[in-house]
Design brief:
With 332 residues, this protein is of the alpha/beta class. The protein is 28% helix and 19% strand. The protein has nine helices and 15 strands. A seven-stranded mixed sheet has the order 12-13-3-2-1-14-15, sandwiched between helices. Strands 4-7 form a two-stranded antiparallel sheet.
Length: 332
């Protein structure tokens, strides 16, 4: 009788990659109440998209880069989100006024659960926390605590009623610090009566990993965009005597996780990502980098992407987190 590892039969799916994925915004419900601000943010993002694309073209020796743009809608933590028809119309109109094209629109709730796949849990299971020197095992593992840090926290002082607390206290320490520490402890989830509630940094980390194309479910790709033609009713607009129908479903739950708005868009996943965000997201993205720096995707997926990039003359950083870049904008 012959025995084989299941992983030996598993094939890692290959697919096309863009050189760069640019996130041009992250929408909250209250943003729609500020249409002028939204348009200003789009205009600013458009300038960054054009400049980043031009810089990438120079690094590619004049070759036309494959650049896709995307937009994330927060339908996970926000209540009272406008229906897809209204929201997509506002966003795409603001982008068009700024001379910007949005290729893909994604739902943040899909980063928690995509169809029947508990996506955030899948990513959480791939977090590998390496205890730094000096750790004594008193801190529970990430899988049980739901907290991930980038170093060693301050040890809990022993209970001495009248002791001198200053003598017991020791500062936290960051792994791979540069002279001084910037210690961060990130909450990944909280367990509520309604079930597990994923944190904003955890969902944003899943979003970044989706854009990098490194997530697999038993070798199969996760997060394939659905063309807008598959969502829009086929008869929409064909009969002028019939009342106009909405182009999109009435609820966000009925929308695909990732919607491809432009038929000729370059691939959604990319070798590198750039996120153009409000400076308010700085703390969140710091936490995102801590999470992504601890995730170990399938080795086959990482190898395929690296080989593909090398064939195109693109050198990728060894650390996955170093493929993420940001442009933070202040108040406009």
């Amino acid at each position: 009788m012959t025995y084989e590892e299941t992983s030996a039969k598993q094939r890692t799916e290959r697919f096309g990659m863009s050189h760069l994925s640019i996130e041009v915004g992250h929408l909250y419900a209250e943003d729609l109440a500020r249409p002028e601000t939204l348009k200003a943010e789009m205009a600013s993002a458009a300038a960054w998209v054009h400049g980043t694309t031009e810089a990438l073209q120079k690094r590619l020796g004049g070759r036309r880069p494959r650049v896709s743009t995307c937009y994330l809608v927060d339908d996970y933590s926000q209540q009272g989100m406008p229906p897809p028809e209204e929201l997509i119309g506002v966003v795409t109109e603001a982008a068009a006024d700024a001379g910007l094209r949005i290729d893909y629109l994604a739902r943040e709730s899909a980063c928690a659960r995509m169809g029947g796949l508990d996506l955030a849990a899948l990513v959480a299971d791939r977090i590998v926390f390496e205890p730094p020197p000096g750790a004594n095992g008193s801190r529970p593992p990430v899988a049980r605590s739901g907290w991930l840090c980038n170093g060693v926290p301050s040890p809990k002082p022993k209970g001495i009623a009248m002791g001198a607390p200053d003598r017991q206290w020791r500062p936290p320490s960051q792994n791979a610090k540069r002279e001084h520490s910037v210690f961060l402890d990130v909450e990944l989830w909280s367990d509520t009566a309604q079930g597990r509630r994923w944190s904003c940094p955890m969902l944003a980390a899943v979003w970044q990993l989706l854009r990098l194309g490194v997530l697999r479910d038993q070798g199969k790709r996760i997060g394939v965009p659905e063309p807008v033609e598959a969502v829009v009713p086929a008869e929409h607009g064909h009969d002028p005597d019939r009342p106009a129908r909405a182009r999109f479903p009435e609820t966000w739950e009925a929308m695909p996780p990732i919607l491809q708005l432009e038929a000729k868009a370059f691939p959604f996943p990319a070798y590198r990502t750039v996120s153009i965000l409000s400076v308010n997201y700085l703390e969140v993205e710091h936490a995102v980098r801590v999470i992504c720096g601890s995730v170990r995707p399938e080795a086959g997926a990482m190898a395929i992407i690296r080989t593909s990039a090398e064939r195109e003359g693109m050198a990728l950083p060894g650390e996955l987190v170093d493929r993420l870049s940001y442009i933070f904008q202040g108040p406009l």
